[in-house]
Amino acid sequence: MLQVRDLDLHIGGLKILNHLTFDVPDQSITGLIGPNGAGKSMFFNTLFGLFQVNGGSIRFNDVELVGKKPHEISHLGIIRTFQDARLLPQITVLENLLAATRYAEPTTLSRVFFHKKALYQEYLSHVKRAQSLLKRVGLESKIHAMGKDLSYGQTKLIEILKLFMADNQVILLDEPFSGLFPEMIKIITELILELVKSGRTIMLVEHNMKLISEVCNHVIVMDAGTTIASGTFSQIRSKSAVAEAYLGD
Amino acid sequence: MDYILHLAITMSIWGILTLSLNYVAGFTGIISLSHATFYGIGAYSTAILTVKYGFSFLLSVAIGMFLAAVIAYIVSIPLLKLQEDAFILVSFGFAIIGYHVLLNWQSITNGALGIKGIKAPVIFGFSFSGKPLFLCLVLVALICTYFILHRIVKSPYGTIMKNIRENSIVASVNGHDVTAYKRSVYTVGALFAALAGSLMATFLMFIEPKSFELMISVFILIALILGGMGNLKGSILGAVFIILIPEILRFVGFPNTIIGEMQQITYGLILVLLMILRPQGLLGEYKI
């Protein structure tokens, strides 16, 4: 369970997050919605330790995340995507996928030289997994293409495949469908549902209310850095203020 | 023949130097202008330990590499906290400090007069005094450097290095301790730069602070960009070109009084043209 309590983030006198409080149930897809500037992406950035908070707490499985470094948070089992798809441009698609994997033991120089065989075997198993994931979405021919040579839709798709490679328990998705054509939205939706079926917990920032209503079990509505409503989609939709402000009822 | 051997040895030593900067800048994205300082630490360690204290060549090289690695590690603690642009400026500052330490710590370094009388390497009783033998020694060092760095950059460790180069925030979100990796890379890069320095000191048999000033760091960076960042073979090619350019200029017939300036103008021109026409260098896989 991910628990956020009274989270405050002030930047230059502006209250970006203001006593933000909510729970994210395990093995669910929780939609995080709100108008532009509500603080949704900033919450993801804050959770990942990219900003120093002014107060409050974020707990995951009873471990406090506030004050931890991004890699420490990742080690606890949390990963995220970015609003502007951040595929690494000057390395191959395979390397992009491998960069997201976790090795059984830390990848240290001593392991490179003195445990080469074990490291190589582990590496090969990751390569096979990357190949099979790419084949599944029809991108196997792009395995050695540079990140910068992929289309926008392909970049978004690889971002989702990275989540399979990383194998983390909690996944924060920041507008994974933005700018995509319907066929690609369908493929990515299927992949996201598969991640949940395999036991992962997902937080999804999205502006497409139809998608939110279709895939999310739970929805949190944010405005001006605070939670204004939460519940199922039909519950939050029935709240007149939310419906008027965000759902265009 | 002697001239060819001289060039081949210099190119090989610069090959080690450029490879070591490629490991730091080309694969990990740490654009450092302080590489000549670590080159100088290796050279001065070997010179001081062999000339003043009678240490063996191998021991002096090992101490020089160790010293450079320790200094790089300590320096990296404040330096690597800085963002890219700030890091370049501060590494520039560190190179200036390094040069002035060599110039002014006269009791140890002999100041501007430098250290002369550095003996040819002797390893297990075998002297590498002639140029053909010395070339064999530096080629062995170059090949070892190449294969050690090749093994690292082709391993999962190398994938993480490139991830950090491309986007350190994504790397940290992927679960990699970016600071620890950068620190390790900077330290290993300094270690091999010191090896090149030790070899150069015993080859020239004389060293002075001027050989390790800021411009040398710039030349190493030009050799790296010329050959291509993120490609180890490119580093060797870059080193060959950076040594050949002044030799070619010598044959063009410029007067001796301006040949130094012409060399620097040519390097500058090459850098400008490369950035416009081929920013990834001759064999590069990475563009700044």
Task: Give a structural overview.
- Chain A has 249 residues and is an alpha/beta fold.
- Chain A folds into 2 domains: 2-86 and 167-247, P-loop containing nucleotide triphosphate hydrolases (Rossmann fold, 3-Layer(aba) Sandwich); 88-149, no CATH class.
- Chain A contains 10 helices and 10 strands.
- Chain A is globular.
- Chain A starts with a strand and ends with a helix.
- The mean pLDDT of chain A is 91.
- Chain B is mainly α.
- Chain B has 12 helices and 4 strands.
- The N and C termini of chain B lie far apart (39 Å).
- The mean pLDDT of chain B is 93.
- At the A-B interface, α2, α3, α4 and α5 of A face α7, α8 and α9 of B.
What class would the helix/strand composition of chain B place it in? mainly alpha
Secondary-structure element series of chain B: HHHHHEEEHHHHEHHH
By secondary-structure content and strand pairing, the structural class of chain A works out as alpha/beta
The main β sheet of chain B shows up as: 2 strands, antiparallel
The parts of chain A where pLDDT drops under 50 for at least 5 residues are none
Number of strands of chain A: 10
- What's the tally of helices of chain A? 10
Q: Any idea what the CATH superfamily of the largest domain in chain A is called?
A: P-loop containing nucleotide triphosphate hydrolases
Number of domains of chain A: 2
The proportion of residues in beta strands of chain A is 15-25%
Q: How would you sum up the major sheet of chain A?
A: 6 strands, mixed
